[in-house]
Amino acid sequence: MAATHALRLRPLLSTARPTPPRATAGARRGPAPAFVVVRCSFTGAPSAVQALKINLIPTKPVEGQKTGTSGLRKKVKVFQQENYLANWIQALFNSLPPEDYVGGTIVLGGDGRYFNKDAAQIIIKIAAGNGVGKILVGRNGLLSTPAVSAVIRKKEADGGFIMSASHNPGGPNNDWGIKISEIKTADIPDVDLSSIGVVRSGDFTVEVIDPVSDYLELMENVFDFQLIKDLLSRPDFRFIFDAMHAITGAYAEPIFVEKLGADPGCILNGVPLEDFGNGHPDPNLTYAKELVFTMFGTHAPDFGAASDGDGDRNMILGKRFFVTPSDSVAIIAANAQAAIPYFQSGTKGLARSMPTSGALDRVAKKLNVPFFEVPTGWKFFGNLMDAGKLSICGEESFGTGSDHIREKDGIWAVLAWLSILAHRNKDKKVGERLVSVEDVAREHWATYGRNFFSRYDYEACESDGANKMMDHLRDVIANSKPGEKYGDYTLQFADDFSYTDPVDGSTVSKQGLRFVFTDGSRIVFRLSGTGSAGATIRLYIEQFESDTSKHSLDAQTALMPLIDMALSVSKLKDFTGRDKPTVVT
């Protein structure tokens, strides 16, 4: 039976883009200025594009072509309908005044999934037809989401398109995405995306660039590569990285092997494939099965990691040990100043998405830096970064990053963990016991306490039942009172999370239903729209534990009373018919 996948195209806008200067030992590696994932906008002086023949193709609005917060995601077969993608691209240009894009420069790239090559040619021609001056496109159309951000900032481009459906599967029957009375398309030949170089048609230019070099240069500015190389070259340290046949396969060998000296055999599923090898490129315990099997096996490596379809998510594993994304960002933040040169002067602030556990809050308090709790969505972090209020942030959905770009960044997170391990083991002689991933996590819990955390995903639920469940929970919240008992738990408050941006004063509401209890425990319910079929119900469960004697408990065991209570209060099985989640993390 064929899998169901989607693709998304995401438009990006940059504001200030200079790259931070390359640092030397002991020098401050400061953050790059602003980059915001908001919309597609291009600035620059108008150029004469009359030399191009522009075809005007009649079209009409497309039913159901509704842009989400980060772009448009549908089935590949939907995007392959006549003018479907072209309509949406043209609509972006129609929504902007010509002076915002005529003569401008944009970046184009994607995760290599099925339909990207065809989509790239469509986008290039419509951009040319609308007067864009230059497109920078990754060779073979490949650029990870973090790399697009890095290229925009270094090249001082005006924006970009990311062709990806993130961590969703790929293939002709699966997902595509891209993060309008007539279509203007230039009558120019298809561009050879396999060769680096410049192609000109009149005053319109396409430059095919190396997808790795600018991103690699940025990573060298952020991390101490020699320190990491010393760790990876040790005979008593083994590392494995699972690219899941997705975009980071194009980055793994140049960075981990060629630059950092890791064994070439450390890369798992390193060849990017249009259908991701018929896999689901979502780096979690369910879908990264091969990596998980290896890391929990008898002869497990010391450190394992994975990234997703477009390279902006990550999973961190130690030898028979899983680090939750909530713990990962907290541990990175707690160790950043000591282990990562970019942060050697400290962090400006820390932030997490609302469903993410409170582990990061405790680090911010100890470091005495500002802390922010924001809705799910990286754009909320971007505003704080642009205002100079935020250095490191993360989401429980395996997204971690910093202000070096304005996207979450999977390889950055892996390099951050390698930096922490390298720093903690730099004085260890061969044969001495190394500080492990588990050691780092347990020491962190001993200092800050452990936030037991889990997320239950119920994917592709029937939308009507999912919405009725959320309406039921809103009724429960409306009638709730502080002090009420929920089993063994006492309610502190319940609400539908809302957020006021401290930078621009904008507000958003209905961002997740929360039940917060007096002992710090929480249950949170959200509906997610990251897939292209049905609704995904996400249930988040968290419980804080300061007693170190209980830190070794299995998370599912520790959280089971809360989980049972959450399922009872929500009546999830009654509304959806589901008796177990699709994914547990």
What share of the residues does DSSP label as strand, in percent? 15-25%
Largest sheet: 9 strands, mixed
Stretches with pLDDT under 50, minimum 5 residues: 1-8, 13-50
Structural class per helix/strand content? alpha+beta
Rounded to an integer in angstroms, the radius of gyration calculated over CA atoms is 24 Å
Number of helices: 16
State the end-to-end CA separation: 26 Å
Helicity range of the residues? 25-40%
Shape: globular
Q: Mean pLDDT, as a whole number?
A: 87
Number of strands: 29
Explained architecture:
It contains 16 helices and 29 strands. It has 585 residues and is α+β, with helices and mostly antiparallel strands. The strands form 6 sheets. Strands 1, 2, 4, 5, 6, 7, 8, 10 and 11 form a 9-stranded mixed sheet that branches. A 7-stranded antiparallel sheet has the order 22-23-26-27-28-21-29. The longest helix has 16 residues, at 410-425. Its EC number is 5.4.2.2. Keywords: Carbohydrate metabolism, Chloroplast, Glucose metabolism, Isomerase, Magnesium, Metal-binding, Phosphoprotein, Plastid, Transit peptide.
